[in-house]
Write a structure and sequence with these properties.
This protein is α+β, with helices and mostly antiparallel strands and about 500 residues long. The strands form 8 sheets. It has a 4-stranded antiparallel beta sheet, with no helix packed on it. A 4-stranded antiparallel beta sheet has the order 5-6-7-8, with no helix packed on it. Strands 9-10-11-12 form a 4-stranded antiparallel beta sheet.
């Protein structure tokens, strides 16, 4: 059997064996490798020239040493070059194998790092959502108060009746508001944003973290009338959130409803909010403690409309149980509950600015005006072709804006009891809410997009298409300095001038 050098793969003239790896080498080649590297080329262990074991083979007759000018000398030089090339090639093969192993290890580490980063990103997102929805700890100190409030509210299902004292108070408040409104109507409010500025409105902020991402959608919006930096939202996640737009901080998370929160109201004079839900309940909350102070069970079906009386003591609500109810939010008492004679579900409700009349919308496209003191239907506004989704009274007390699932907005004159303007939007346009600003100068529409109109001329001033889903709520800030909107895309957006 022939012997072959492990480096050159040729039959060695002077074969030697490495005791470290047991490989056979040409003596001159392995000696050069050991002098340069000091290790066995196969095993990589330390090796000295003295450790090599020479193998006894039959003697080979060698030619005479060539002279420097002879062809054999040239061949000898070429042989030396070949030996050097073999050593270099062998070293390159070893380095290539090492590089392949290192690259494989680096790719494995990269894949593992990507998996870790993805997991950490997911955990950070979940932690941020949990932080945004963390209930303030101050509200945890009095759980008994919520149970007491629920017990008190549960007994308020029977109507107590509107006493003469209540009626007198409603009339007194209405008289004062009417006089105040007449005074304000003579002049434009100081600081009211001009229509050119409305046209220049830009999206100033977008806040997606107010409600849970697992059940996306913000369904209701209101602004604190006395502190326009505070906004209130109701979500699909069954929570209501109080948010400060100036500090961009969540003030309170109100947890208690067992179904989504569809209507929200911020009390104008107190740090109190009111929420309604399809779970048949209306809750009155104390914002600093995040606790329910009064639980109203005025209806036998999902609550669809909610409006606070100008006195700040009573709330109007409508439901699919075909009734509207008038309740005292101080005592949790149901004062009166009236059935709609048409026998259809009520979809929305709104008090007139003076508080003595109010409007309701119905499932069969009717808009009805009611006298609160007489508890009677005094006017009907037919004309829509679908369930009424929103109604809004202008602050001047003369105009009523209504929207339904027929892609149009109708304006009604309450003095003449007739429709004087119809704003027809694109076919399929979904209108979720209407809102006049506090001065009655502008009208905002939330639906497929968000739009602002100039009242009286009913001219479209601005369209906002920033939401990626249908807009559900819209409100003007003080003097229309900014506009807020909410959407099923889980964001609260703020518009204004930079």
């Amino acid at each position: 059997m022939a012997l072959y050098c492990a480096i050159s793969n040729e039959v060695p003239e002077v074969p030697v064996v490495s005791p470290s790896s047991g490989a056979v080498f040409e003596k001159r080649i392995i000696e050069k490798y050991i002098i340069e590297n000091g290790v066995d080329p196969i095993s990589g262990k330390d090796l000295r020239v003295e450790d090599l074991i020479e193998i006894k083979t039959p003697p080979i007759v060698k030619p005479k040493p060539p002279s420097a000018t002879s062809i054999p000398a040239t061949l000898k030089s070429m042989q030396d070059e070949w030996d050097a090339l073999m050593l270099h090639t062998f070293t390159q093969r070893q380095q290539l194998q090492t590089a392949r192993q290192e690259l494989s290890h680096a790719l494995y580490q990269h894949d593992a790092a990507c998996r870790v980063i993805a997991r950490l990103t997911k955990e950070v997102t979940a932690a941020r959502e949990a932080l945004a929805t963390l209930k303030p700890q101050a509200g945890l100190a009095a759980p008994a108060a919520a149970h007491a409030a629920e017990a008190a509210g549960a007994g308020g299902a029977a109507a107590a009746g509107m006493s003469a004292e209540v009626v007198a108070r409603l009339q007194e408040r209405a008289t004062a508001l009417t006089q105040e409104r007449k005074r304000r109507g003579r002049t434009v409010p100081d600081g009211l944003v001009a229509l050119d500025q409305i046209r220049a409105f830009l999206t100033l902020a977008s806040h997606p973290g107010l409600h849970s991402a697992s059940v996306p959608g913000i369904l209701a919006l209101d602004i604190n009338p006395s502190d326009h930096s505070r906004l209130l939202t109701g979500g699909n996640d069954r929570n209501a959130t109080v948010f400060n737009k100036d500090t961009e901080q969540v003030v309170a998370i109100l947890k208690g409803h067992t179904k989504k929160v569809t209507r929200v109201i911020y009390h104008p004079d107190e740090d109190t909010v009111i929420t309604a839900s399809p779970d048949h309940t209306i809750r009155v909350w104390n914002v600093p403690t995040s606790q329910t102070t009064v639980l109203l069970r005025s209806h036998d079906g999902p609550v669809t409309g909610l409006s606070l009386h100008p006195t700040g003591d009573y709330v109007l609500s409508t439901s699919t149980d075909q009734h509207w109810a008038f309740s005292d939010i101080r005592t949790g008492t149901l004062l009166t509950k009236v059935s709609d004679a048409s026998g259809v579900s009520l979809t929305t409700a709104q008090f007139h600015p003076d508080g003595l009349i109010f409007g309701t919308g119905t499932e069969d496209s009717q808009v009805k005006i009611w006298d609160l003191k007489e508890q009677s239907n005094v006017a009907n506004f037919p004309g829509h072709a679908g369930p009424v989704t929103s109604i809004s009274f202008s602050e001047n007390g003369y105009y009523l804006a209504t929207a339904a699932e027929d892609s149009c907005v109708k304006l009604w004159d309450l003095r003449k009891l007739k429709n004087f303007k119809t704003i027809q939007l694109d076919e399929g346009y979904s209108i979720k809410e209407l809102c006049f600003d506090q001065s009655g100068t502008y009208l905002a529409i939330a639906g497929t997009d968000v739009r602002v109109y100039l009242c009286r001329q009913w001219q479209e001033l601005k369209v906002f298409n920033d939401h990626t889903a249908s807009a559900t709520g819209v409100r003007f800030g003080k003097n229309a300095q900014y506009l807020a909107s909410t959407s099923m895309d889980r964001t609260l957006k703020l518009y204004g001038i930079e």
